[in-house]
Design a protein that fits this description.
It is a single chain. With about 800 residues, the protein is mostly beta strands. It contains 13 helices and 55 strands. The protein has a 20-stranded antiparallel beta sheet, with helices on both faces. A 4-stranded antiparallel beta sheet has the order 25-55-54-53, with no helix packed on it. A 4-stranded antiparallel beta sheet has the order 26-27-28-29, with no helix packed on it. The chain is globular, with a radius of gyration of 29 Å. The relative contact order is 0.07.
């Protein structure tokens, strides 16, 4: 079974979970003696030391390095510094490792006044004088530079670091990762897999031929921790020129993984791979296995491959989009069958085909039995495993309801290329299969509590996002609860829905709202009114935030009935963005940022008139769509498919205009649509919207229109991402095909939010003033519905990875709920 890739990555992050950071200055890289296996950027050395001591999981850090080196690194907690540092670890030969710690001045030793704890002596090496520092029965070597102090566990390594003449010689991949780390997080870890031979020797069995750099070239993680929680979030990179396991998923979009809805409740370990396009996977597989041509396979319709451990026994799940080729293939291999709880279980005469077709995702697995549940084919080497799966699935007792899965799911994104989840028992079983004897012994000390281990890989353009957590499992009873954390009452009734905006000084959220007297308020996340500004009219649509000067200071941009305004942090107007538009009747403001480089385009629509301005408030002369054929009825949208931009305008006469950046037609939509009031969205790379009869229009990039009768009432609502479609019709809410029947009422259109790598969907019963909140699998969030007057905004208000929602509570009050 190929738990190997997620297992290796999880073991690596487990072993190095102790390292912490904030952003280190580039000069710290000048003192690298040669190419390291691990680098840790640290922003505040004292915080690094404190977090190391407080986190109950970090005791495993002593297992990651040879005893002598681990002991010396632990002695570094005697250093007192509020400055930045860079810790690097090296393999000096097949048996030895060393570290180099470069500190920005000033610094001191905590025990500096105690001669019994800190002893210094001068040592001479190759013509240079260094200091030997004894710290609590250990010692390090030190060199003092102009702005830095360099410490090392080996004198020869320190000498090389000081005399290093190959500055900037690390691979280009490293510098890309070094610049991508989040300076707001406690630590960043960079792992050079080609140099981590000692880690492979420590973690994997002696006869294991796997090399760490066969998985990926470099890994980097940003580090978050609490007492019983470690979260590493980062990216990995691999060169296309050499076969790497993670490159099996290059050019593949992440997908929602659904086999957890079939896996049994007591699953001990679960790994799932998404296959967005089988042709792409086959080409990647061909390159990885160095085949002359892609494999011919009957499993082209499989979009998810999952493996699990249940009672120490193995199973494979294949989720499919069709069965035309699979069924005849399996029928040719089965010999007889039995029935269990109304489901046929088949016996196989040959079962190595899964390893053949899905190599290297599946290894060392010989299927003897299989069954089919809905769209999922289940294979196992044991009949009892198949029966257990059927029993739990038919009773609804599945993995997605387990506290193990729920705990991991609070951090993991909804869409992935790889997901790995395990409990203590699952980790023990995997360690027996893959782990070295020493690793098995060491982990016994860690896994005596009820922890969740989870990992995730998500593809992007030229790299891979990675998420890993080790966390004490939350109980079913305390996994989620919702409570009011803030209530603000204004003098006048609210005119707009309260909205979260970012405070650029601390990256937390604040609230903006306007009352019926046209007063605009900025309210802190503690409930304090920061300022109040009287406007000349009602704000149209939503308020956008922009960074006009590209200095990470954000402004508020919006339109009123007859003005386009941008306000700074203090509520003052930013010139020249206090523009009046005679005649009024403006739609909400559209803000386009084509390349994400803050070169904004502001689009103001007024009847048929279309005005596009740049970041200096000047008309964009290259934009030619200055007058629409009919009044524009909704805020224009900028959508993107691949590298192409699409500007979408919905007109009163039913025209759907899809333009390029210059305002010329990019997609010719020949048919008129009696728009329902819902926006245009991208879904599976098609432009979708609905008409008043409830017909779904899907327009592809060439203008071809596909219509689907959804039997929706005129006041229905839709919202969508490229992978998740949501609709509500009267009291029926559908999320990705999952149907929820709500109480009878009058519902707002659905809203979709993507926060902390998770999708949330909300609808409000305006009649009974109830707010409902669901996840992307149509599961209700705990303690919902809650009381609220209209639509919501949702975000992580205080950056604690717990969501808050803000909404109207009554006519003149807003309320903030926190979901714990």
């Amino acid at each position: 079974m190929s738990y190997r890739l997620p297992f290796i990555l999880l073991i690596i992050i487990s072993l190095f979970a102790c390292e912490q950071k904030k952003e280190a200055s580039e000069s710290l890289l000048d003192y690298l003696p040669f190419e390291p296996s691990i680098l840790i950027k640290i922003n505040n050395v004292s915080e690094f030391s404190n977090a190391w001591e407080k986190n109950s999981l970090l005791k495993i850090s002593k297992f990651t390095l040879p005893d002598s080196l681990a002991f010396r690194i632990s002695s570094l907690k005697e250093i007192q510094s509020e400055e930045k540092a860079l810790l690097s670890i090296y393999q000096t030969d097949s048996l030895s490792t060393a570290f180099v710690l470069t500190l920005e001045r000033p610094f001191s030793f905590k025990s500096q006044d105690s001669s019994s704890n800190v002893k210094k002596e001068s040592v001479l090496f190759k013509g240079s004088t260094y200091e030997k520092i004894e710290l609590k029965n250990s010692f390090v070597y030190m060199a003092k530079m102009k702005d830095h102090v360099v410490l090392s566990s080996q004198l020869s390594v320190l000498d090389l670091a000081i005399k290093n003449t190959k500055k900037g010689s690390l691979p280009e991949t490293f510098y890309k990762l070094y610049g991508s780390s989040n300076s707001e997080k406690p630590a960043s870890i960079y792992m050079n897999m080609a140099q981590a031979h000692w880690l492979k020797n420590y973690s994997l069995k002696q006869n294991d031929s796997t090399t760490l750099d066969s998985v990926t070239d470099w890994l980097t993680f940003d580090f978050i921790s609490s007492e019983d929680f470690i979260h590493l979030h980062g990216i990995s990179m691999a060169q296309d020129s050499t076969p790497k396991t993670i490159n099996l998923f290059q050019h593949s979009k992440p997908l929602p993984l659904t086999n957890s809805n079939t896996a049994p409740f007591n699953t001990e370990a679960f790994v799932s791979f998404s296959i967005e396009n089988h042709n792409t996977f086959s080409k990647n597989q061909q390159e990885y296995l160095e085949l002359s041509a892609p494999k011919e396979t009957p499993f082209n319709s499989v979009d998810e491959v999952s493996m699990l451990l249940l009672g120490g026994k193995k199973a494979v799940f294949l989720n499919t989009l069709g069965t035309e080729e699979i069924n005849p293939f399996l029928e040719s291999l089965r010999r007889n069958e039995t029935n269990y709880q109304g489901h046929e279980v088949y016996f196989l005469t040959e079962g190595a085909f899964l390893t053949t077709y899905f190599d290297p995702l599946i290894k060392n697995f010989n299927a003897k039995y299989y069954a089919v549940l809905e769209n999922t084919y289940m294979f196992s080497e044991e009949l009892e495993v198949i029966k257990e799966v059927i029993k739990d699935k038919t009773s609804g007792n599945t993995l997605d309801k387990n506290a193990l899965f729920k705990t991991a799911n609070t951090v993991l994104a909804d869409e992935s290329n790889i997901v790995f989840i395990a409990n203590n028992k699952g980790i023990r079983e995997l360690l027996k299969d893959f782990g070295s004897n020493q690793l098995n012994l060491d982990f016994k000390e860690l896994i005596n509590a009820d922890y969740v281990y989870a990992g995730q890989l998500i593809t992007d353009k030229d790299f891979y996002h990675t998420n890993f957590i080790i966390q004490k499992k939350v109980t079913e009873e305390t996994s989620l609860s919702t409570s009011i954390v803030l209530r603000v009452e204004l003098e006048s009734d609210l005119a707009t829905n309260p909205q979260f905006v970012i405070n650029h000084r601390n990256s937390e959220k604040e609230i903006v709202v306007q009352d019926i007297d046209n007063n605009l308020y900025l309210i802190s996340n503690k409930g304090r009114v920061i300022w109040k500004k009287t406007l000349n009219g009602r704000i149209q649509g939503k308020i956008s935030q922009v960074d006009l000067y590209k200095n990470n200071r954000l402004q508020l941009a919006f339109t009123t009935n007859n003005e386009f305004l941008i306000l700074d942090r203090n509520g003052k107007e930013v010139e020249p963005f206090n523009m009046k538009f005679p005649g009024g009747n403006l739609n909400g403001l559209a803000v386009f940022d084509y390349e994400g480089k803050k070169n904004y385009r502001f689009v103001i629509t007024q009847g048929k008139k279309v005005t596009m301005l740049n970041s200096k408030g000047k008309v964009v002369n290259g934009f030619k769509y200055e007058k629409a054929e009919s009044p524009v009825i909704m805020v224009p949208k900028h959508l993107r498919i691949g590298r192409k931009d699409y500007l979408v305008f919905m007109l009163e006469d039913g025209s759907l205009k899809i333009l390029n950046r210059t305002g010329r037609t990019r997609v010719n939509v020949k048919e008129k649509i009696d728009f329902s009031g819902n926006e245009v969205y991208l879904f599976k790379d098609n432009f979708i919207t609905t008409d008043k009869k409830g017909t779904l229009y899907a327009v592809d990039s060439k203008g071809k229109i596909t219509k689907s009768g959804l039997n929706l009432n005129p006041d229905h609502g839709i919202v969508s991402t490229n992978r998740t479609f949501v609709s509500n019709n009267e009291n029926i809410l559908k999320i990705r095909g999952h149907e929820v029947t709500l109480e009878l009422g009058v519902y707002s259109r659905p809203q979709l939010f993507y926060v902390n790598n998770k999708i949330y969907i909300s609808v409000t019963d305006i009649q009974s003033q109830k707010i409902y909140l669901f996840d992307s699998n149509a599961k209700s969030i705990s303690d919902f519905p809650v009381f609220g007057n209209y639509e919501i905004d949702l975000g992580d208000m205080d950056n604690d990875r717990k969501i808050e929602i803000v909404t109207k509570e009554q006519d003149n009050a807003l309320v903030v709920y926190k979901v714990n």
